[in-house]
Amino acid sequence: TPETTRTRKSTHPRSVLGRVKSSYPRIRRILVPLDFSGKSRQALRYALPLADKFSARILLVHVIKPVRGAAREDIGSLPVPRQLAQPALRRLEEMAGTLVPRALRGANIVRLGSPHGEILAAARKFDVDMIVLTTQGRSGLKRLLIGSTAEQVMRHATCPVLSIRRQ
After folding, report:
1. Where are the alpha helices (DSSP H) in 40-139?
2. Beta strand spans in the chain (E)
3. Residue pair 27/130 in contact by the 8 Å Cβ criterion
4. The pTM is what?
5. Are 142 and 110 in contact (CB under 8 A)?
6. Which residues, other chains included, contact 166 with Cβ-Cβ below 8 Å and sequence gap of 6+?
7. Average pLDDT in the 62-69 region?
8. CB of 119 closer than 8 Å to CB of 63
9. Cα(123)–Cα(111) distance, rounded to whole angstroms?
10. What does the pLDDT read at residue 29?
11. What are phi and psi of 33, to 5 degrees?
């Protein structure tokens, strides 16, 4: 009967795989924020196989928090002072050189401002397809008072965010 034929065709493994492949998301750039702690490198352990699978580039970003007392409005418009940017950029390049295969390396970015704001700004500027970051796993009052960079990034990012709990 025509109905049984239709049922057989729609459950055939090849037709299912064909639909999955055509709707598979394309990941070209993965942003990994690093604060140079050993714990933040855990995000790279998850980002590397993803980048390899999709032939994506990994972009590393480090955010330097502004000096207390700086006006919030001025932060976004100020360039990162050279004396702060150079050492951070050097460390990012070292990490990329030792941890990220050459074929997967993208840009190394140093920004000045609030961590979540600058991570989101970098994601927009470089048109990233995914952000992979670690979270400290704060909870309760401490999280309420201090806030969470990972939580803010997840709330406001326009791309998928993979959050890895620090261990």
Report:
1. 42-54, 72-75, 82-99, 115-125
2. 29-33, 57-64, 105-112, 130-135, 161-165
3. yes
4. 0.76
5. no
6. 39, 40, 42, 134, 135, 136, 137
7. 79
8. yes
9. 12
10. 97
11. -75, 135
